Amino acid sequence: MPTMPRLIRRLPCVLLALGLAPAAASGLPPSATATLLPATLAMASGGNALDAVVDVRRPHADGLMVMAVTPGGSGDRIGLRVGDRILAVNDRPLTGTLEPSKVMNEALATRRDLELRVSRDGRELTLSGTAAADTAAAVAPGCGYVTNRGTLPHVSDRLHPVEILDIDGRGRPVDANRHRLEAGLHVVIVGERIEDIRFDPLQQAQRSRMRSREGARAGKALVVDVRPGVRYRLGARFLDRNLSSRAISENAYWEPLVWQEVEDACD
């Protein structure tokens, strides 16, 4: 039976590293420095080093954004939070390199203990602890699907379409009615496709500037725990109550979610 709107947990058990590429469509208004590299899913050797999704799609002077953290994982245990910006890992700075993915993976591969320097709410913090041993969870055999298709509920539910920009760091998938995935956790990057009519002219202009500035970084990570024989319909929830200029500028006016799960046999 279908299950109706619920926010799927965005919490993977791998370190996702989406790197730079000189030419790969972002699916959002063009930005010369924010294109996605198809087929780049980097994990620190030895396993789930941070148990977090970290956006390394381009170097950033303010640090690398943490997009998701696994509850109970290494990052969570040392206090890493979604929205933190990682400035350095194990004494390796991430703000002065053109290859943040490479530097991060090298830093995490060298030792089991973790020391992160992060920026949070304008303050610099040092987080330290020990990485968990790699214990791969058992995954049920089979497959399921993710899709951005389907008739959305009434607009009063504030649910709107999304575009799938990336799945598991492999780049933009070919446009299709549904995307087959093996059972287990998958990281899906989506961009909102809220109708322009939902914004007033000033808000539309602010949104356009934000999307042009952020490029591919305007997409958000959604981690879907795929069960065999289930299709997951993805969407965006419009957070339009008391919508402010700041919320639009900070891309904080929407959140990705799985709004419905339906049975769908998968071989």
UniProtKB/TrEMBL annotation:
InterPro entries xref list: PDZ, PDZ_6, PDZ_sf
Cross-referenced SMART domains: PDZ (SM00228)
PDZ domain sequence ranges: 47-122
Transmembrane segments: none
Signal peptide span: 1-34
Keywords for this protein: Signal
Protein's recorded name: PDZ domain-containing protein
Protein species of origin: Marilutibacter maris
